[in-house]
Amino acid sequence: MTGPIAHGTIRTTVVLGLRLASQAGTLLLLARLLGPDQFGAFAGVAALAVMLGTLPTFGTHLVLLSEMAKEPSRRDQVMSYAIPTTLLLGSALFAAYLLICRLALKTVNVPLPAIVAIGITEMWLQPLFSFPVTEHLALERTARSQLLTTLPLLLRLTAAATVLLLHPSDPLMAYSYGYLAASVVALAFASRTMQASWPTPNTWMLPDRATLHQATGYAVLAITAAGPAELDKTLATRLLSPTASGLYSTGARAIGAATLPVIAMLLSALPRLFREGRNHIQRTARLVRWIIATTLSYSLVLAFVLWIAAPMFTWLFGVEYEGIQQMIHWLCLAVPGMALRIATGNVLMALGKPWMRAGFEISGLIVLLFAAITLTARLGTIGMPLALACSEWGMAVTGMVFIMRSNTWQLTLPNK
Q1: Host domain of residue 313
Q2: What per-residue confidence (pLDDT) applies to 415?
Q3: I need a labelling partner for 55 at 20 to 30 A (CA). Which of 88, 165, 295, 311 fits?
């Protein structure tokens, strides 16, 4: 039962290895290029944009995944309302993003043109880019879907390398323009890989009430899923010194990238979970048990490897990042919880329980917010990774409880 998924996971992990290399390379180049102070500021602003950028599609990309996994011919029907929804909501969120940056992050040293470039990228270009990616995923072209997802990351790596070679007077501004250009090129290329062209404007329409009800749960879980991965960087910008914020954001990005094999496994399993989740309970139950066990085993090994390898990070990022070894050690506490949170959340979503996932992720965001404020005030810099660990483990345990109390988990128990 898990054979095809295991094979798909291996293929997808290879592709995600390229994604990991792209992210790691960009992180390394940017960290060295900007230094911890400016990198922390950029990370906080970009994290806010990425978090808000999960909302413009209003979950319609996941509706597309669900509908096409069942019947590929439903593609145009979903796309006809997904595109105008994305453009309209993206415009409103772009305005909100600029307002938040001006009011809440006004002390952050990031030029306004850079903020605008990042906002356009995350509020319009990347949400539109998610549709061709999702289309390939729904057709179970998982590796191809993830290879496409990697394209803007490779282009951002190219942009960072170009900035490093050219030595402009304002490297942050130069990279921000490259950040925008990378998504423009990626969207143009992705459009050519779609099985059919984009629906023309004369076919666009707003979603009806039933569609909105279906998409709302996905929209909520999109923002709550991104929150734990992004909100902590924005909080670090506000709660820590510029240097400490840079150290934290660099370390957190590094451990987050290391969970990519878990994401590969889940992406390979999602189409089957969407298709069979509520109709083939026994097979789904065994698949869920396999996903949880594999995730836990991998994440424990990963945390141990990162702990041992922590001294290498000082050498990789340079003397300006003295202290990142200790930051990685503290962040290792969050790694298993992070992986299990990703796994349980995706299982609940695919099984038609998006509000359960949204519920435990909202509680995790609340825990992260209060823990970050409290622990950084009492413990200083190490309070931030401890707050992340509290949030991730809280969400992981809650997600496991939701699965264990459902019929899906109960049927994984041996028959007596």
Answers
A1: 3-410
A2: 42
A3: 295
